[in-house]
Structures are given as structure tokens and as C-alpha cells.
Amino acid sequence: MKRTARIVFNIFSFITSSHKKKLFILLVLMVFSSFLEVISIGALFPMLTALTSPEKLNHLFMVEDIFGRMTQDQAILSMSLLFVFAFSLAAIVRMTLLYIQINLSMAIGVDLCTKVYNFTINSSYEDIIQKSSSVLISNSQKARDLVSTLIQPTLIIISSSILCFVIVFGMFLLSPAVTLLTLFFYVLLYILIFYGVRKKLSHNAVSYADQMVRSNQLMQEGIGGIREVKLNAHEGTYVELFQSGLSKMQEAAAGNALISQMPRFFIETVSVCILAVSIAVLSSNNISFVDIIPILGVIALAAQRMLPVFQQAYAAVSSIQGSLKSTQDVIYVLKSSSEADQRVVPKTKFSFVDEIEFVNVSYTYPARGSETLKEINLVLRKGEHIGVVGPSGSGKSTLIDVLMGLLEPTTGSVLVDKIPLSQLNYVGWQSLIAHDSQDIFISQATLIENIAFGRFGTEIDRARAIRCAELAGLEASIDLLPLRYETPLGERGINLSGGQRQRIGIARALYKEAELIVLDEATSSLDNDTESKIISEIYSTFSDKTIISIAHRLSSLKNCDRIITVENGYIESIYDYKSLINNLEKK
Prior knowledge:
Helices cover 64% and strands 10% of the residues. It is α/β, with parallel strands linked by helices. α8 (176-224) packs antiparallel against α11 and α17 packs across α19 (498-511). The longest helix is centred in the N-terminal third of the chain and has 51 residues, at 72-122.
């Protein structure tokens, strides 16, 4: 229980100060609601007294002072109205409290889920590529689920505890022996049941969290690789694996749901037994049957209110225990997020007017043992058009990722106008860079929103977007689209050809009007004539910009000032276009 309490406390430590203030107000309302509950239960006593022995009603505390002396009919009517009013008021306050409690827990859940997503998307490029996307997505789902598995259950436990304490206190004043007997059996039963099933709850929690990640992974792989799935007729295999994982996940959830509801049936039986014992205890104290009825009525009503409260509290504890693994995963992300927030550096403006210099730059991916880049020394001047060639796996893309500040050199440094790139200025440097790759990401947004990626509505410079689309040779494709620039492109541009996707990528890179334009196999899906035309227009239109082109097709690099050959992580040689062709012909 200490471990569970510590985990719950950790989650609530990440709640914003405004939500903590609202939680305090909610706590006050819980106390107020609990006292109203006791008053509504206590209002049954004078009503039953009026029915069984009205002559004793005037001797009850403050009844005669408030209502004066009453006939039996007046007493029954007055006490009945008092009971209905108190019970209705308590119900209204209880519903209001529930409304506030649900909305506040939802708001806290949104805040925590947003923090997880914010940390994920703001993590370093290196961290993200080292993790499975299904794990990253599952973390956000787990944070979202905290509303129902931890936040609301915790609030239920608090409200139930306050209500039980106040009801027990009121019952104790009426009949100490019956109250202690009821409390003893209720608490003992729930504790014994919980300690008997907590290991099963924890086991189910781990199974549920693991299978959630696995299910997400299968959905992503099945849909993302749909072409291969279809061609190899693997639909059945993926459905079978998905069903198996989902069955285990739901089996764990169903097991925990059953465990959380199971004690209710035992407690109902015990409640009937306690009522019978209460009659015996009260009778043994020489209390008349007429006097027993009001006391039993209040005890029965109090027990009727306490039974669901105990059950809700037990179900809430079971829910928290059954989601510990997912909660721990979220806490790990939230702690990492807090540490990252403490390291946040203000965005600074950056400029590029002279040159980029690599000084003894090496890079090793964390998951690999050998260096991908080895002692790179290179100077790129502002306004140069640079080509980069080399076999697959030679380190070309890694070189560009280091240049763009997506990867930090393991050793050495990259200097822009003699200023070393670091975490302090990566954001400013990246604001000057436009990048286009052969595997361009296409969102489900419209064509113009894909060109002006990250901008929407009035934020988009429509004239600039159209000009960039024309430079990328998109005019003919746009004429075929039903809504032209306002046509949604579908998930990952599924209905576009490879050439259309690459033209959109080029238009997007040009739209940014960056100082450094990186084209990574950006025209590999275009035919030679189209490629030559587009590249020539880009180079002439952006002659003052620094352009770096990675390509396997050498013809796309004929307009480059220099061509860098990369092999085995080293810069093997630097040529102009003619020298490179002559050298290759000699080989």
C-alpha cells in the first residue's frame, strides 16, 4: 500500500497549481456534502419516532424549540417534509459534487496527457528515433486513461473516506456497539479481500500495459505495411496476432473489473447478518420495540449509504492497483518532462552570413558500436550549391542530420559563422533550414496546408505557396484535383504518386524561404527531364541560398559548385561535376 500511495502522490505532484486549488475547494465541498448526508440520515429518526411514539418527539433535541408542540398528524407531516427536504438537498449537493469531480478529473487528465505528448514531440530527434513509435503512442494513451484508472478513483477514495468517517461518527452517537460491530466487519472483509487479490491485480496491470503496446505496434505495422501485407496475403496472420493480444488485454481488464465488484455480494450478506445482530444487541439492553424501530431505521439507512461507499472505495483502490504499471510508465515520462522543462533554453535568433565549418566531427548512434561519421573536416560557404554522393550506409544522411542540428556530434563541433552549434542555439539554427527528403511526410490536410506545413488558415501566405508549387512543377497535378489547393490529400498522401509527393516536398522546402535548403534524394521519383527542369529553376531562383543536394543520380548534381563523396563515414574526396564524371569514367 505504501508503494501504491507513493505512486499516486507522484502523479498528483505533476498537477498544476490552479488544479491543486480546485482540488482543495473540492475537498471542502466533500466535507460539506458528507455532513449533509449525515443530516439527511439523521432526519429519518424523528420521522420514525413521529410514526411509532409521537409523544416522545417533543423531547428530542431542539424539536419542540423549532416546531413547537404538535399533534401526531402535524408531527408526522412535519418530520416527513423535513426528511424529504434533507434527503433531497443532500442528493442535489451530491450530484453537484459528482459533476465538479468528473470535470476536474477530466481537466487534470487533459493536462497530464498534454504534458506527455508535449515531452514526446519536443524530445530530441536522437531520442525519438531510438524508440518504438508504438511505445510513444501508448504513453499518451496511458496518460489519457489515468482519468478513469487513477484520478477519479483517488477522488472517490477521498470523498468515500470523508463520508464514511462522518456517517460512522453520527452512528456512534446513536449506538456505539452496533456502529463498532458494523465498522469492524466491513473494514475487515474489504482488507482481507484486497490483500488476497492484490498480486493478481498487479499481474493484470503489467499484462494490460504490455498488450496495449503490442496492439498498437500490430495496428501500425499492418496498416503502414499494407502493400506488403496484401501482396503476401498476411491479413489473417495480423488479425490473429491482434486478436490474441487484444484478448489478453481484455482478459486482464475483465479480471480486474471482476475483482473490483466481487466483495459487494459478501458485504450484502454480512449487512443482513449485522442487522439481525443489531436487533439482538438493542433488545438485550432492555430497549422497547417501539424505541428500537427509529434506531434500526437510521442504522439501516446509514448502512445502505455506507455499503456503496465502501464498495466504491474498494473498486477505486482496485482500479489504482490494477493500473500501477501504466501509471509508472506515465510517471517516468512526466519526470523526464519536468527535467527537460528545467533545461529549456529561450529561443534565440540566429544568422548565417558566411560559412559552416565541421571541425573533427564524429558521430556514433547510441545503439551501434562503430562510428557512422569519422573525423569530418569541411567548410561550406554561404551561397554555395553542394552535392553529396556515396553508397548506401556511407553516412550521407547522418552528415546532414548533424549539419541540421538533429544529431549532436559525439566528438568535434559544427560552427556557423564561428559560433558552435549546441542545445543553446539549435532552434534558432533550424529556423534557417528547409529540408526535403525522398520519404516526405504528407498529412491528411489540404494541399496548400501541406505546402505551408505547420501553418493553417490565415497563417498561410497563399501567394507564396502557389509560387512554390509552380516552381516544383505541381501545376498539372493541381488542375486534376477536385478542389485544387483545398483538396485533402489523405493519410500520408496515399492517393498521390511518388512524383507528386516529391513535388509537394520540394514546394514545402521552398515555402520556408530558408537560408539553407537541403534536398535529400528529393527528385529520385521524377524522370530525368522533369528533374533537370525543376533543379535548374530552384538553383536559378534561389541562387543566393546555400543548397545541399544528396543524390544517387549524378545528373541532378551538374549545377553544383562542389560535390562531396562520402564513404565509410569519411569524406573521401571533393570534386566539381566534370572532375567527378571524369574520375568515375577512369574507374
